[in-house]
Write a structure and sequence with these properties.
Layout (H helix, E strand, L loop, with lengths): L1 H18 L1 H8 L3 H28 L5 H18 L3 H28 L5 H27 L11 H28 L1 H4 L8 H37 L3 H29 L1 H11 L1 H6 L5 H16 L1 H12 L4 H30 L1 H8 L15 H7 L1
Helix pairs in contact: 1-4, 1-5, 1-6, 1-7, 3-5, 3-15, 4-5, 4-7, 5-6, 5-15, 6-10, 9-10, 9-13, 9-14, 9-15, 9-16, 10-11, 10-13, 10-14, 11-13, 11-14, 15-16
């Protein structure tokens, strides 16, 4: 629960960045392409380092890894609140991205270590903390920042202080775990055999990365451009658009919480299949509906699509059971990287063709989920052994 709370607070800070985009665009007279560039810099910083951080801490676990990541995020948020030029904004979001790339693979790995065998439930609880934090961010911005100005983002440093406080519990537990592991030699003697051959493992991971690609292109369109879409198409205010974005992000939190336990019971592959492909009817209908129906469909799409990530992450960890940090960093990093590149490309796309065209195009992305049929069923395979 402490890991869930830290994930919530960390992702709340991250979501503040994208939630302030409409105000930032107005303050600095930015184009959609420049908004996409800001997201690209953040997502690249949050993606490139994640596998490296995961691999490094797999080899040399470090008790203070989570506070180290929060130091970068805190510095980035403080700079972002007062940035008055695009280069300074880019430095600020880069720092926030580095903090994210440090926290996510380590926190995910520690979650698996603390799960006592119920890894799906543990990862869902951990992930829903992040989703809940992401959903709170736009609402907090609408209530605290929008009425007063972007400098009020500095108030979110209180969230950083709360995260540092909660991390003390995790650091104490992790320190005891590492001490016990070193004493008993558990880290060296508990290596598990991979369920598939090297070639099939590479193929399965490639399929999972394709699924992440389809999921996060669609998620990028909603997370970064949904507010602009609602303002442009339906004429809602900035504050109202943030509240409606909150509705979508709450749905992603609920879907994440459901995905892990269902995967524990029925296997990861059925959840992956139903989640990504099951989003398609809602995404395809959304560009053709009124405001009320759009909100409902965004909720349904967010719920269905978000249930996939815990299942995908755990499936990948089961493929490489002795490289939890590396796998977590790879998939978190790839997800963030895809979202960043997609945001930049979609920003250029919006400048040329209009904001509505983004949602007409991205509605087809969940159909890529058909490739899930190529994944082997690890649950049956393990039971057979």
């Amino acid at each position: 629960m402490a890991l869930c709370t830290v994930h919530c607070l960390n992702d709340l800070l991250q979501s503040v960045v994208s939630a302030v985009y409409p105000m930032l665009k107005e303050d600095l007279s930015l184009s959609f392409a420049q908004i996409g560039l800001i997201t690209l810099v953040y997502q690249i910083a949050a993606s490139v380092f994640q596998p490296l951080v995961g691999l490094a801490f797999d080899r040399r676990p470090y008790v203070g890894s989570l506070p180290l990541g929060m130091v970068f995020s805190t510095a980035g948020i403080a700079l972002f609140a007062f940035a008055m030029s695009l280069p300074v904004v880019l430095v600020a979001v880069f720092l926030v991205g580095v903090g994210s790339s440090t926290l996510h693979p380590e926190a995910s790995r520690i979650t698996s270590l603390a799960s006592h065998g119920r890894r799906g439930l543990a990862q869902s609880i951990f992930q829903v903390g992040g989703n809940f934090g992401t959903s709170i961010g736009p609402l907090a911005v609408a209530l605290v920042v929008a009425p007063h100005g972007r400098r009020y983002v500095a108030l979110f440093l209180i969230v950083s202080a709360m995260a540092f406080y909660v991390m003390r519990t995790i650091c104490r537990w992790y320190s005891g775990y590492l001490a016990a592991a070193a004493k008993t030699g558990r880290e060296k003697t508990s290596l598990r055999r991979a369920p598939l051959s090297y070639g099939r493992t590479v193929f399965a991971i490639s399929v999972l990365l394709v699924l992440i690609f389809s999921k996060y292109i669609y998620m990028a369109s909603l997370t970064n451009y949904y507010t602009f879409y609602l303002i442009d198409r339906f004429g809602v205010s900035i504050k109202s658009s943030q509240i409606l974005l909150f509705v979508f992000l709450v749905a992603t939190a609920a879907g994440t919480l459901a995905g892990g336990p269902v995967g524990d019971r029925y296997g990861r592959k059925p959840v992956i299949w139903a989640s990504i492909l099951g989003t398609a009817p809602f995404s395809l209908l959304m560009p053709h509906c009124g405001l009320a129906a759009t909100v409902v469909l965004s909720f349904c799409a967010g719920f269905m699509l978000s249930s996939a990530f815990p299942a995908i992450l755990l499936y990948s960890q089961e493929l490489l059971p002795n490289k939890l940090g590396l796998v977590s960093g790879l998939f978190f990093g790839f997800a963030f990287g895809v979202a960043g590149v997609a945001s930049a490309v979609l920003g250029e796309f919006a400048d040329v063709y209009g904001i509505n065209a983004i949602f007409d195009f991205c509605a087809y992305m969940p159909l890529i989920g058909l490739v899930a049929c190529l994944l082997p069923n690890l649950k049956k395979r393990s039971e057979g052994c």
